[in-house]
Amino acid sequence: MTNEELYLAVALNGWKGNIERADKTFSGLSNQEALNEIAPGKNRLIYLWGHLTATHDAMLPLLGIGQRLHPEFDVAFISNPDKTQAGIPSVELVRS
User: Fold this and answer.
1) How far apart are CA 26 and CA 32, in angstroms?
2) Please, what is the end-to-end C-alpha distance for the chain in angstroms?
3) What is the predicted pLDDT for the residue at 40?
4) Mapped to the 3 state alphabet, what secondary structure does the chain carry?
5) How large is the average pLDDT for residues 50-58?
6) pLDDT category of residue 65 using cuts at 50, 70 and 90
7) What's the rounded Cα separation, in Å, for the pair 24 and 80?
């Protein structure tokens, strides 16, 4: 294995591990818990979850892994702050 291949393998394993940890944390939340703010006046858990999902989704084509699965998440979770959009994707959609 070349150094470049080793670096890529380490980066991808780290990325995968972070996704798995976030998935474990967020998937255990009830729909109501996901709508709670992390602290009074701060972002809701659904926003953080959606932001991570949208950001990782945007990396797929950059890394040559594939096409984006949810580009529609950008408006709700990347381009705008939490609580500024009337309708955001549901907890069930983000969970899936």
Assistant:
1) 12
2) 35
3) 93
4) CCHHHHHHHHHHHHHHHHHHHHHHHHHCCCHHHHCCECCCCCCEHHHHHHHHHHHHHHHHHHCCCCCCCCCCHHHHHCCCCCCCCCCCCCHHHHHC
5) 94
6) confident
7) 26
